[in-house]
Amino acid sequence: INAEYMGKFWAGAAGFPVSGFSLDDQMSQEQQDVEAIVNGLTQGVMHIGGALISQPFKRVAMLLQLQDAAPLPNGVRYENARDVVSRIFNEQGLRSFWRGTTAMIMFPAVGSLAVILATSQLNQPKAKSMPQAFLYGTAYATLSVACFTALAYPLQLASVRQAMDLGTDIKPKGSSLTAALTTTPREFTSLWNCCKTIVAKGGYPALYSGAVSQIGATVAHKTLQSLFLLAAVNLPLGNSEQSMKWRFAMGCGVGMLATLCSYPLETITNRLKMMAGRDQKLYTNARECFSHIMKNEGFGGLMKGSSVIVGYALVSTGIWASYSVWAQKRDAERFQREKARFWQDADDDDDDESDL
User: How many helices (H) and strands (E) does the chain have?
Assistant: First the structure.
């Protein structure tokens, strides 16, 4: 449903008709395969670029969000986003803002591969009624989520744990005892080392700490995004150029609003990830985590770092919105060109029949 609404949303932004004349009908199978590969590679590049640009926002937000979930070395405490940025830059260096990026780049690729391998041979039966369609769709989606989570979730957990690693690779200046004591070594040296360390301490189930909550947070985020996009699709707009600009702004706004509304669930999920492989756990499930936060920090504890995540949502959604508007505008121009050629060929055939 989310994909359908997003398609209609960006299709309207480019003036591309949602139904009617089919562009695919005018393309050979080889052309469609080539286009699919090009689109896939383009989206892959966009994803990598988006991850590299948005990861510093995510790390700053997580350091504020999760600093109460586990004791930080040397009694570290961050007051606000500005304090985080300043101290991380001075203590860990510029490169440290991208800790956990490798896992996030691999995350969708591995998850999508898992879904494709699991569902490629599955023929979903045709539904004869609305309840059957809902049942089949739910079963198919459940299988996809299960496969995605089984392979990709450990990468997401490792990304969070690497982002919360406050160790430094920078050698202390001087050889004094004070310099040595104030320098904290890295908890994890790589993605593989992170996963191996967590498994060594808590077993393989530790890699799935908070997985159920993560599914709930993702469903909530996508559902809200679908509802907001549905509302945006049905709003009256002006001419096509104004429509495109307005929809681009609205798309960014929808991304930020959906992220903020689902942020409390994201906080709970990330805090459960911080418990993976630890001997002393503050909480073992989402209910305990929610009760602990409300009792000790209040509702504000669920929203820590949300001001920074707005920037992340704006950057991330803006990148994909730009790509979507460009892609739909490109397809709209190709659609009009192929449609004109189609009707021109039809007119030529009519003229030939008339001559005969």
Answer: 12, 0
Amino acid letter for position 322: S
- Asked if residue 342 has pLDDT above 80, the reply is no
Closest CA to 255 of 318, 211, 345: 318
Report the alpha-carbon distance of residue 56 to residue 95 in Å, rounded: 10
Separation of alpha carbons 272 and 61, rounded Å: 16
Distance (Å) of CA 29 to CA 44, 188, 331, 335: 22, 47, 17, 17
> Whole-angstrom Cα distance, residue 307 to residue 258?
14
Q: Is the dihedral of CA 323, 326, 332, 338 positive or negative?
A: negative
Residue with tokens 């689109």: 39
Q: Output the pTM of the full model.
A: 0.75
Could you tell me which of 75, 78, 85 has the C-alpha nearest to residue 64? 78
pLDDT band at residue 233 under the 50/70/90 scheme: low
Q: Shortest CA distance to 313 belongs to which of 268, 267, 259?
A: 259
Per-residue pLDDT of 167-188, as tens digits, reads 776 655 544 444 444 467 788 8
| Spatial distance between the Cα atoms of 245 and 225, rounded to a whole number of angstroms | 19
DSSP 283: -
Residue 252 has phi, psi (to 5 degrees) of -65, -40
| DSSP secondary structure code for residue 338 in this structure | H
Percent of the chain scored above 70 by pLDDT? 67
Residue 148 and residue 85 in contact, taking contact as beta carbons nearer than 8 Å: no
- Whole-angstrom CA distances from 108 to 44, 51, 190, 196 are 10, 11, 19, 21
Position of tokens 């985020």? 221
Rounded CA separation 103/156 (Å): 7
Q: Token pair 């209910």 is at which residue?
A: 287
pLDDT score, position 175:
47
